[in-house]
Structure of DNA topology modulation protein FlaR:
Amino acid sequence: MYSHETQRRIVVTGMAGAGKSTFSRALAAKSGLPLIHLDLQFWKPGWTEPSEAEWREKQRGLLAGDAWIVDGNYAETLDLRLERADTVVLLATPWWRCAGRAMLRGFRMPDTLPEGSEYSRWQRLRAEWRLVPIIWRNRRTELEREQTIIARHGQHTTQYVLKSKRAIREFLDGCADVAGEEHSHGSN
């Protein structure tokens, strides 16, 4: 049973295109917890990547609060998020759905961009469509890799693996609302 009162630091992870941002926005709206999109935090101005040390330090600052939902699939720093988390939601969306979402996402501009970054429609299309072969190539290993990291660093967390749109809907329907009312969701 998910409880807004007891589960206040939630990691949402999964393959690119799994629906992490959409799920996290819905969960934040339902729970009232603040939302951190790692994709918006990762890039420095001009789409410059931070060093690993800079990225780890930035995440430590982002995760310092007592309550949050953080979404992203940065496996190399998943251990940091798991150290502070009390809940993990792994979206195990089928690879072909993830690839299809990446293709469609290429046609839509994001609502928000990382600070100091510009993004043309062509850059968006190219960036998203480059994900498709990566998703296909990693379709058998990415979920297993994340589950291994979670098993190693997140034994103390409550874990949910959501494998379908129905499981996601049931989870969100079963979430405690801001008033603290609890519902059973049956996914674990």
